[in-house]
Amino acid sequence: MDALTRAVRESTDFPSIQALRRASAAAGAPRRGTGPRTGTGTDATRQRGELQAQVARLLRIALMTGQFVPGQTLSLRQLAHKLGTSPMPVRGVLGQMIASGVLETQPNGSVAVARMTEPRFVELTRVRKALEGMAAEMACRNATPKLVAELEKINARLHRSIASRDILACLRLNQAFHFALYSASASEILPSLIESLWLRAGPFMYFSLTAPATPWDATGHQTVIDCLRKGNARGTRLAIERDIAGSATYLLKKSGAFRNGVGAGPDAATALAKAPRARAARR
């Protein structure tokens, strides 16, 4: 696991680029842009490209872990301040995400997280089950004791977050668990395809944890770990599929999210105000 990914997994707050750079430097990674300037256009272009890539990475993580919700308007200046950078690289990343359908332009010209509809969510769930199930099955064939230990550690922290009702930490750790598993698939194609699905589904998944009594207890993750230990590839696939289906069923049938207009209405803030919301615990 690289320093940037570790910093994101271990933080409950949306991290700034400076914080991630400090984590990277502490881990011994070379720092960019700190030495004497060469004055060449090529160096400046490379540094701008690296900065925009970091911004894109952080915004993808934020979307996948429910730090933004469907319909929420994104302020360019606020995002730049939160990320600790200028508006320019943020503007470029937002443009890319609009083109890919993750974000949308509103009639007044502002940018918002794409709204969720019931048909879209049903299709997303079906595709997620197919691709993530495949990745999990492949990962089981490559499973090592180190992978099992990492997943156990993440899952233990996830259970503590569920107990303390730390919604953002739950979503962050859930994402960390799934992607640690999928990265073990050694597939060149599946992880990027799965990430594109999480960018769309992640913001809406926030509402799977807003019920007074959290219906999701991550028991499916323990089944995944047990199947990995036994080398049961089919069992690993089925466990992931059931984990995805369980949350989706709750959102579709019991949460009232679509009936209440969450993710489909013109103002996400109004919808959020009607939903029970736990504050993220501070560590």
Short characterization:
The chain is mainly α and 283 residues long. It is built from twelve helices and three strands.
Walk me through this protein's architecture.
- With 283 residues, the chain is mainly alpha-helical.
- 64% of the residues lie in helices and 3% in strands.
- It has helices spanning 3-9, 17-26, 41-64, 76-83, 87-100, 118-141, 145-163, 167-183, 190-205, 219-230, 233-254, 268-274; strands at residues 73-74, 103-105, 111-113.
- Strands 1-3-2 form a three-stranded antiparallel beta sheet.
- A hairpin with a 5-residue loop joins strand 2 and strand 3.
- Helix 6 (118-141) crosses helix 9, helix 8 runs antiparallel to helix 9 (190-205) and helix 10 (219-230) runs antiparallel to helix 11.
- The radius of gyration is 19 Å and the shape is globular.
- The model is unreliable at 1-12, 29-38 and 265-283 (pLDDT under 50).
